[in-house]
Amino acid sequence: MLYDEFDAYIVVSFNNATLVLSIGETVEEVSDSGFLDTTPPLAVSLIGDDSLMQIHPNGIRHIREDGRINEWRTPAKRTIVKVGSNRLTVVIALSGGELIYFEVDITGQLMEVEKHEMSGDVACLGIAPVLEGRQRS
User: Whole-model pTM?
Assistant: First the structure.
């Protein structure tokens, strides 16, 4: 996926849904993409060498190339409001100002690494890309 010459999917976000389309000779809706189709994505990206990631208000969905799906859910009464990510790291901001930092480990698993409570709501997040040969940005 990461090194494919052409894109294989288009992900369309709606207020209450996610639509995944495959790109080939024709463009067709994909029903078994692994993405939650009943929630709007805040971000969708490649992560690691072989995985897809869908971040939505209630969690992170990590879709492995072999079809395994790992979920991380937000704590009760909190939602994800901002996202920053690159190929190996993800930072999310929860309502109320908590930052949570994730990294892809050597097995390709997305792992929660650290949390930090901010003094207020986070307005924006960004994270630099990981340079070739490095593990962190």
Answer: 0.87
| pLDDT tens profile 99-135 | 999 999 999 999 999 999 999 999 999 998 877 776 6
Distance in angstroms (rounded) separating the CA atoms of residues 84 and 126: 5
The alpha-carbon radius of gyration of the chain (Å, integer) is: 15
CA-CA-CA-CA torsion sign (124, 87, 91, 134): negative
Domain boundaries, the chain: 9-117
Rounded to whole angstroms, the Cα distance separating 41 from 18 reads 7
In the block, residue with structure tokens 């690691």: 48
**Tokens at residue 103, please?**
């990294």
In angstroms, how far is the first alpha carbon of the chain from the final one? 21
- C-alpha 4/C-alpha 14 separation (Å) is 27
H runs (alpha helix) in 12-115? none
For 50, the enclosing helix (H) or strand (E) is: none
